[in-house]
Write a structure and sequence with these properties.
The structure holds two protein chains of two kinds. Chain A is of the alpha/beta class. Chain B folds into four domains: 239 residues, Up-down Bundle (Fumarate Reductase Cytochrome B subunit); 105 residues, Fumarate Reductase Iron-sulfur Protein, Chain B, domain 2, CATH 1.10.1060.10; 152 residues, Rossmann fold, CATH 3.40.50.1860; 128 residues, Rossmann fold. In chain B, the strands form two sheets. In chain B, strands 1-3-2-4-5 form a five-stranded parallel β-sheet. In chain B, strands 7-6-8-9 form a four-stranded parallel β-sheet, with helices on both faces. In chain B, strand 4, helix 25 and strand 5 form a beta-alpha-beta unit. Classes of the chains: A alpha/beta, B mainly alpha.
């Protein structure tokens, strides 16, 4: 059984984001890079399934992006993926979801992946479209934002979180694409032997053209960093002073203690 | 009348032959026992602990003969020392008898045991026997009546005490019968040189000569069998510590304190890291288990044990010994237990006080390495996330790598560029870079340098966590990743001297980075400031305040730096009141061993115990010289009512206060 995991490398969200020269996206200088958190859930779930199934399953990790994403692919290998495919695309950060999906589909189509796991969305672009588009264009069933997953001979049961803390259970049949949400699992810390193995592993490198890169449907107008509202206030002191300060702020700067404010 | 006696009087020549035969059997049993033990030690990996043999031998002799390690804790230690010296004298006296009869008399026709020497010999051995009896009584009373916590009472312990008692008492009785039948009648003057034997002789004086002789012969035989039995059972009982504990003085590491066993990360064929089985440990680790006498001193000083956590350093060693002995028992880590392993703060109080030179911490780290490197296990999810954050952002908080040098904005500090030359490179560390409380320490240190005219550079965003907490959690791979990055940055910076205010960074850069090729002088700010004060570069204008000083384990215990911070503190006006555990016997704040990255879920917070000791001094200021300690204190004080009366500061902060005083 072949399982595909689509992962993305994203900047650590604590970094300082400044617009690039063109103003179309953020400047990468000074940013630290890591695997998109939701994709780490996808890798973990795929590897867990593989471990449950034993020798018959094989997990392929796929990442679209510039040369730096090799680190993230190796991370996926060290977590237990068997193969890594790098679609080497320096333009990837600024491509729209349709283009990214087109490349993934170009690779995946015809390779018989029974299951595709990916993150619900990326932490940087947050379009939450790539998974859906890939499912649609591969013509497979799709469930988004899963928080639990069960596999029984091609029959899949997933939990999904819906608005307001409610959740539901879905049953679907493979082949399917699942996008993963927080709560699904706790991704493992790679073991050292696996890290060493991942460093020696050969990656499959493909060009965007070879996997059918298509023209974009949307283009990025501009990028604006976080616009700060009023700066946060950090209060200091013991409980009594803190309480007095909070009260003063509530009284002077908000209306929550105003007359008639009680609902 | 001359002062001598007939050796082997009344025993007959046959008995002496029997004695030598039994001695042969006893020594054989001892040799066999030690061979069995050696087979167990050999289950561990090879390790060279015989380099500089003369240095090792003199350490063995000094430690053993002086009993200095065991006597460091007077209760138990002093009676043990007295018993040891007394028993050693008795043993030497017995050997002298054998040598006299079978070497000196037949070969050289010399009688050493006569005249004044014999008088002195008799008196010494008699008093030694008495002292041994008294010391044994005190030891037995302590173990079986007073029962201090941590000291076990097994049937084996009782048997050993009884055996020693029997050897001593039969010795005196044999002497008593001999003297009753000989000296008491023929040479009463000489009898007085054996005062205890004299008392026993008086007891038996009324018996007939025949009865005295019969009783003497029987008890001589019993005494001989007991004494040789003692030799035979040494390796088979806790008595083996006579060889293994002193042996451990020989096998002590010759490396700087805190040096961890290396992990070969470049060996591509390596499939096992850390210790998950006895065979992954070194032979010395298994030898340590045999050197342990279960005296309980480590346990009684272990901050984890004293605050209700399931870690007893003594039990860790005993568990390793059990697993080594039973080949198909529980797996090593199950036997020791994960909770015990993760509870260790690596403070080293156990090793510091251990009279048997046992290395507890290295074993715990080796087992942690197995958990982290082979199974991806951590003491908690927060510790795993902190390691991820160190890997990605270079700090355990997960804050932006690029903002690492932001604290220094507006301060007289340059970011090292490899060209400009400053007097020192200040390795800031994660806490002083990001933690708001410890940033004040960094600012204070810079102010001190400015006042003393010391130019300072920092690595800024090129600096990463030194890797110490991750390494102590067992994450050697992450440690190496950040260490190599830091070493490259330091080398590129053009630095000639490094100063850090963090004892963890200090130990890591000064000792561990050296193994990886960093070769620069590294200093802790406490000794650096002391020098500035001593050289007159830093002028202090102190106003008196009451203070107590908390020794960071990684300064006082690992680096013997206890005096310098106190000198600085006093120069800054601190009137020092010491806590009950101070200096090399200081009590951990709870943050060492990577515990700073993990929640303290079991027992009570270690820092609360330390704050209780600090409050007891009545001082208004608690001075630390470590960002981990300071963070723990601030957290602990916030939780308690004491933060009104007790305030925690770093040494640099109190120095700055005395700079600013008019």
């Amino acid at each position: 059984m072949n399982i595909l995991v689509c992962i993305k490398q994203v900047p650590d969200m604590e970094g300082r984001f400044e617009p690039n020269e063109a103003g179309s996206w953020f400047d990468e200088v000074g940013l630290a890079w890591r695997m998109n958190e939701y994709d780490a859930f996808a890798v973990e779930e795929a590897v867990r399934l593989k471990e449950r199934l034993g020798g018959e399953a094989r997990v392929t990790a796929l990442c679209v992006g510039p040369a730096r994403v090799v680190e993230t692919l190796r991370k996926a290998l060290s977590m237990g993926c068997d193969d890594a495919v790098h679609i080497d695309d320096p333009e990837a950060p600024e491509r729209d979801p349709w283009q990214i999906a087109s490349m993934i589909v170009g690779f995946a189509a015809g390779r018989g992946f029974e299951l595709v796991f990916t993150g619900m969305q990326s932490e940087d672009r947050s379009s939450a479209q790539v998974g859906l588009l890939v499912a649609e264009r591969l013509g497979v069933t799709c469930a988004t934002g899963i928080t639990a997953f069960e596999w029984r001979d091609g029959a899949i049961t997933v939990e999904r979180e819906i608005e307001g803390g409610r959740s539901c259970t879905l049953r679907l049949k493979a082949p399917a694409l699942l996008t993963c949400q927080q709560g699904l699992n706790s991704p493992r810390y790679p073991t050292l032997p696996n890290i060493m193995k991942s460093k020696r592993a050969k990656l499959t490198v493909l060009t965007p053209e070879s996997v059918g890169l298509e023209p974009p449907k949307a283009s990025s107008g501009n990028f604006r960093p976080h616009e700060r509202n009023a700066a946060g206030v950090i209060l200091d002191g013991d409980a009594v002073t803190l309480a007095a300060q909070v009260l003063e702020i509530l009284e002077t700067r908000t209306a929550v203690l105003g007359k008639g404010g009680v609902r | 009348m001359g002062a001598t006696r007939e050796i082997y009087w009344n025993t007959g020549h046959g008995a002496v032959v029997v004695m030598y035969l039994v001695a042969l059997v006893a020594v054989g049993a001892m040799a066999l026992g030690f061979r069995r033990r050696r087979d167990i030690w050999r289950r561990g990996k090879p390790l060279d602990r015989v380099d500089h043999p003369l240095r090792r031998l003199s350490r063995l002799l000094a430690d053993t003969l002086s009993q200095s390690k065991v006597a460091r804790v007077p209760e138990g230690g002093v009676p043990h020392s007295i018993f040891f010296w007394a028993f050693l004298l008795l043993f030497a006296g017995t050997l002298l008898v054998m040598a006299q009869v079978d070497l000196l008399t037949p070969l050289f026709n010399v009688n050493l045991l006569s005249g004044d020497f014999y008088r002195l010999y008799s008196l010494t051995l008699d008093l030694a026997g008495l002292l041994a009896l008294v010391a044994l009584g005190v030891l037995a009373a302590r173990r079986f009546v007073i029962r201090p916590p941590g000291l076990e009472r097994t049937p084996g312990d009782a048997a050993v005490h009884l055996l020693l008692l029997a050897i001593l008492v039969t010795g005196f009785i044999v002497e008593g019968f001999r003297m009753a039948a000989t000296e008491l009648r023929d040479n009463p003057g000489l009898a007085l040189w054996s005062p205890v034997g004299y008392l026993f002789a008086e007891l038996f004086a009324a018996m007939s000569d025949q009865a005295q002789r019969a009783a003497h012969r029987a008890l001589w035989l019993a005494h001989m069998l007991l004494a040789l039995g003692f030799i035979a059972i040494i390796p088979w009982t806790k008595l083996r510590h006579i060889a293994t504990t002193s042996g451990n003085s020989f096998f002590e590491p010759n490396k700087p304190k805190g040096t961890l066993p290396p992990v070969d990360l470049d060996d591509e064929s390596a499939e096992r890291f850390g210790a998950s089985a006895v065979g992954d440990l070194f032979w010395k680790d298994l030898f340590d288990a045999d050197a342990c006498t279960k005296c309980g001193r480590c346990q009684e000083r272990c901050p984890a044990w004293l605050t209700g956590k399931p870690l007893s350093p003594m039990k860790v060693i005993a568990d390793i010994g059990d697993v080594a002995e039973k080949e198909n028992g529980k797996p090593l880590i199950e036997a020791v237990s994960r909770d015990a392993l993760w509870s260790c703060t690596t403070c080293g109080a156990c090793e510091e006080i251990c009279p048997a030179s046992i290395e507890h911490v290295g074993k715990i780290i080796e087992m942690r390495r197995s958990l982290v490197l082979m199974a991806g296990e951590f003491p908690g999810d927060e510790a795993r996330r902190a390691c991820d954050a160190i890997e990605i952002n270079g700090n355990p908080f997960g804050l932006a790598r690029s903002s690492r040098g932001d604290w220094a904005k507006g301060l007289p500090v340059s970011v090292a560029d490899g060209k400009s030359e400053t007097e020192i490179l200040y390795f800031t560390g994660c806490y002083a870079s990001f933690d708001p409380r410890n940033r004040k320490v960094a600012e204070s240190f810079i102010k001190i340098c400015a006042a003393a005219g010391v130019t300072v550079a920092v690595l800024g965003k090129a600096e990463r966590c030194c890797g110490e907490p991750a390494r102590k959690l067992g994450n050697e791979y992450l440690y190496r990743m950040v260490a190599e990055s830091n070493i490259a940055a330091i080398c590129a910076s053009g630095a000639r001297r490094i100063v850090t205010a963090c004892p963890h960074c200090f130990n890591t850069l000064a000792r561990d980075y050296r193994e990886l090729g960093l070769d620069l002088p590294v200093e802790h700010h406490s000794t650096f400031i002391r020098r500035l004060v001593g050289e007159g570069r830093l002028k202090l204008n102190p106003a008196a305040f009451s203070a107590t000083y908390h020794d960071s384990c990684y300064l006082a215990r690992y680096r013997d730096i206890a005096e310098a911070p106190r000198v600085v503190l006093e120069a800054a006006g601190g009137r020092l009141a010491e806590m009950e555990w101070a200096g090399s016997e200081g009590f951990c704040c709870g943050a060492g061993g990577g515990r700073i990255l993990a929640e303290e879920r079991m027992g009570t917070p270690i820092v609360d115990e330390r704050l209780r000791m600090a409050r007891k001094t009545g001082a208004s200021t608690l001075v630390a010289a470590c960002p981990f300690c300071l963070s723990m204190f601030e957290d602990g004080l916030k939780r308690s009512d004491a933060h009104q009366s007790l305030k925690a500061f770093d040494l640099a902060e109190v120095v700055v206060r005395s700079l600013e005083n008019p």
